[in-house]
């Protein structure tokens, strides 16, 4: 990895090791899935979901069940109206969502 243009060190010693920290996740890195999981967990808990103690990919809120698998999220409810409300809550909290089916 090369040092970005415009980045200068105070010390001009070329033997010194340089470590660069990413400010944003890059899709495909090992940490990306862990960081995505933490972000989604915080978002779901923020809108009222509780994470299951036994299955960490399962979130429950009243009569709605949310299941997370990698980067896919499934919502289960008796009818569509509560699911649409939850999706709009997630969209307003900063998540970009796409409805892929019925």
Features:
single chain, 102 residues, alpha+beta, four-stranded antiparallel β-sheet, 2 helices, 4 strands, 29% helix
Provide structural commentary:
29% of the residues lie in helices and 17% in strands. The protein is α+β, with helices and mostly antiparallel strands. It has a 4-stranded antiparallel sheet, covered by helices on one side. Strand 3 and strand 4 (72-76) form a beta hairpin. The radius of gyration is 20 Å and the shape is elongated.
List the helices and strands and how they pair.
Elements: H1 30-46, E1 50-51, E2 58-61, E3 64-69, E4 72-76, H2 80-92
Antiparallel strand pairs: 1-2, 2-3, 3-4
| Cα-atom radius of gyration | 20 Å
- Give the % helix: 25-40%
The SSE string, one letter per element, is: HEEEEH
The major pleated sheet works out as: 4 strands, antiparallel
């Amino acid at each position: 990895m090369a040092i970005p243009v415009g980045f200068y060190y105070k010390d001009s010693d070329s033997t010194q090791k340089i470590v660069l920290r990413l400010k944003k996740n890059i899709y495909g890195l090992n940490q990306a899935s862990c960081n995505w999981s933490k972000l989604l967990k915080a978002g779901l808990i923020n809108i009222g979901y509780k994470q299951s103690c036994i299955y960490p990919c399962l979130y429950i809120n009243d009569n709605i069940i949310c299941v997370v698998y990698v980067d896919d999220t499934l919502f289960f409810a008796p009818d569509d109206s509560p699911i649409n409300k939850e999706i709009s809550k997630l969209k307003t909290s900063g998540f970009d969502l796409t409805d892929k089916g019925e």
